[in-house]
Amino acid sequence: MTDIKLFSDGAARGNPDGPGGYGTILQFTDAQGVLHEREYSAGYRKTTNNRMELMGVITGMEALTRPCHVEVYTDSKYVSDAFNQNWIEGWQKRNWKNSQNKPVKNPELWQRLLAAMEPHEVHFNWVKGHNGHELNERCDKLATSAADGSDLLDDEVLSGV
């Protein structure tokens, strides 16, 4: 399996009803020791920070074309704790309800992420945001630039499209 590093960040202006974006960087080192890198970003007219955090990881996972070992680096406790604290398993067992028996937010994105992760071995790592982590800072710039861009997409769930 190829070892992949996936760095991701999300941003939203005027959370929860403003524009937002995500930034994702995929890295792997080939057999000759050469580092390969690809960046992804997109902005949305009306979204939330948590949705953008999820979309960043989803986009990176969906870009992978064969099973890989993936180390995800995110400053989102929402995303990392869902897996590292096993919240996701409880949500699935309770039919996408949280421990207070309330609907989990963004279930369609969680389900999309789980489907994208299916062929891979994935580990989530939390990094402190805005703390000088070079690739987290790059992802933040990608996300905020996308949120501030002019070619914004519609988030179908929040825009009612």
Helices, strands, pairings?
Blueprint: E1 2-12, E2 20-29, E3 35-44, H1 49-63, E4 68-74, H2 77-84, H3 87-93, H4 107-117, E5 121-126, H5 134-147, H6 156-159
SS strand fraction: 25-35%
Globally, the shape reads globular
Which second-level CATH architecture applies? 2-Layer Sandwich
Structural class: alpha/beta
Number of strands: 5
The CATH top-level class label: Alpha Beta
Specify the CATH homologous superfamily.
Answer: Ribonuclease H-like superfamily/Ribonuclease H
N→C terminal distance = 39 Å
Task: Calculate the mean pLDDT score and round it.
Answer: 94
Mind describing the biggest β-sheet?
A: 5 strands, mixed
Helix tally equals 6
SSE run: EEEHEHHHEHH
What does this structure look like?
The chain has one domain (2-153): Ribonuclease H-like superfamily/Ribonuclease H (Nucleotidyltransferase, domain 5), CATH 3.30.420. Helices cover 37% and strands 27% of the residues. The protein contains six helices and five strands; from the N terminus they run βββαβαααβαα. It has helices spanning 49-63, 77-84, 87-93, 107-117, 134-147, 156-159; strands at residues 2-12, 20-29, 35-44, 68-74, 121-126. Strands 3-2-1-4-5 form a five-stranded mixed sheet. A hairpin with a 5-residue loop joins β2 and β3 (35-44). The longest helix is centred in the middle third of the chain and has 15 residues, at 49-63. The model has no long low-confidence stretch (mean pLDDT 94).
